[in-house]
Design brief:
With about 375 residues, this protein is α+β, with helices and mostly antiparallel strands. The chain has helices spanning about 5-35, 40-65, 70-90, 95-115, 120-135, 145-205, 205-215, 225-240, 245, 250-265, 280-305, 340-350, and strands at about 270-275, 305-315, 320-325, 355-360, 365-370. About 70% of the residues lie in helices and about 10% in strands. It has a five-stranded mixed beta sheet. Helix 3 (about 70-90) packs parallel to helix 5 (about 120-135) and helix 5 runs antiparallel to helix 6 (about 145-205). The radius of gyration is 37 Å and the shape is elongated.
């Protein structure tokens, strides 16, 4: 049986409630045996069995999150049905001496009412308890009123536990449904806000450029217009791709996107692609973004090209960002220590727990790889 947090809280509460109910009966049993039946070996053995089965039932429920079927069935048979006869055989031949063993039948019926899914199984367990307890009390000469009161307690325990479990399960399910609806509504509002932001960006960039060209106010062959069109085309490609928002961690995506837009605002044409989930801490995403920005700045300053490619990949725990250009390149062995790629980019990644590698050769362009964690 599956369910959300509300449903599982309901199950946890029912395990606790029935466990406390059983504990109260066990305390009565310990006191009764110590005070009145300390010389009865069968009474001590019965009490030990009751304690052991209780640990089995509620230990299993705690470790697995619910009772299961076999532990409650063992509880009904051993503690609920057979225990009174064992205590009677040990010399408890008066109703008062047998009462503590009979009392445990009430908590056994409560556990059965909660643990068994089918009503017919619950009815069968309660019927077995009623029959065996009637047979157990009868040889002691108990009054009919005493027997009836005890049988009423067994049935009432089962009915109340079943009703409580039904109510808590229903409330937990309703809470989970309301939570899911609230999350869906929040996600819808976030998607709507994202669409509005994209619409505004498109209106202020791509549509404005196209309108200016269509109306004749801008010359489509002019170099500034072509540069602007290329920059806005790169933005459209990232927008259409969708993986930038769906597959990449928002913090990482936002940090890299800021670096890309900063470089584009200075005239660099950047192709950015995002592949795979990348769940990293905020400080790591910030370091990746700043290091990528510095790598793109170096393309602008030193590469002698107006294009660069940024790729973000991840496997859920590790992120790799690569910045590649096809510019003039350089020999990393003779670059001064103070250059941004080595000092700023490398130091920033090391401080955040990551690493940076630079691969370049004269005339072969440059490839910067940023990794987190290292």
């Amino acid at each position: 049986m599956s369910g959300g947090p509300g449903f599982h809280r309901a199950r946890t509460f029912m395990v606790l409630a029935t466990g406390l109910y059983r504990a109260s009966h066990l305390v009565v049993g310990v006191l009764a045996v110590v005070q009145h039946q300390r010389g009865s070996v069968l009474s001590w053995a019965g009490l030990a069995v009751a304690l052991s089965v209780s640990l089995l039932v509620f230990g299993t429920a705690r470790s697995r999150g619910w009772f299961g079927t076999w532990p409650p069935l063992v509880d009904v048979v051993l503690v609920g049905c057979l225990l009174p006869f064992a205590v009677y055989a040990g010399g408890a031949n008066r109703p008062a001496d047998l009462a503590w063993a009979m009392l445990l039948g009430g908590s056994a019926s409560a556990v059965a009412a909660v643990a068994f899914v089918r009503p017919v199984a619950v009815a069968g367990a309660v019927a077995a308890l009623v029959a065996t307890h009637t047979a157990g009390y009868w040889p002691t000469g108990a009054d009919v009123a005493v027997i009836a009161a005890h049988l009423n307690a067994i049935v009432s325990s089962a009915v109340l536990a079943r009703v409580f479990w039904w109510y808590l399960r229903r409330q937990g399910t309703l809470l989970d449904a309301a939570t899911e609806q609230a999350l869906a509504a929040e996600a819808g509002r976030a998607r709507y806000a994202e669409r509005i932001a994209h619409h505004r960006a498109l209106h202020d960039t791509v549509l404005a450029t196209l309108t200016a060209i269509a109306s004749g106010r801008a010359d489509a062959d002019a170099l500034p217009v072509r540069v602007r069109c290329a920059r806005e085309a790169a933005y459209l490609r990232r927008l259409v791709q969708q993986q930038a928002e769906e597959d990449c961690d928002p913090g990482t995506a936002a940090a890299i996107e800021r670096a890309v837009k900063s470089a584009e605002s200075l005239g660099l044409r950047v192709s950015a692609q995002y592949h795979g989930p990348a769940d990293v801490p905020a400080h790591a995403a910030d370091a990746l973004g700043q290091a990528a920005a510095e790598a793109l700045n170096n393309v602008l300053r030193h590469a002698g090209t107006g294009r660069a490619c940024v790729t973000v990949t991840g496997d859920g725990r590790r992120v790799v960002v690569t910045v590649v250009d096809r510019g003039v390149g350089f020999d990393p062995r003779v670059v001064p220590e103070g250059l941004g790629l080595r000092f700023s980019v490398g130091a920033r990644m090391r401080e955040s727990g990551g690493a940076a590698d630079v691969d370049s050769a004269p005339g072969e362009g440059t490839r910067v790889e940023l990794r987190w964690p290292a």
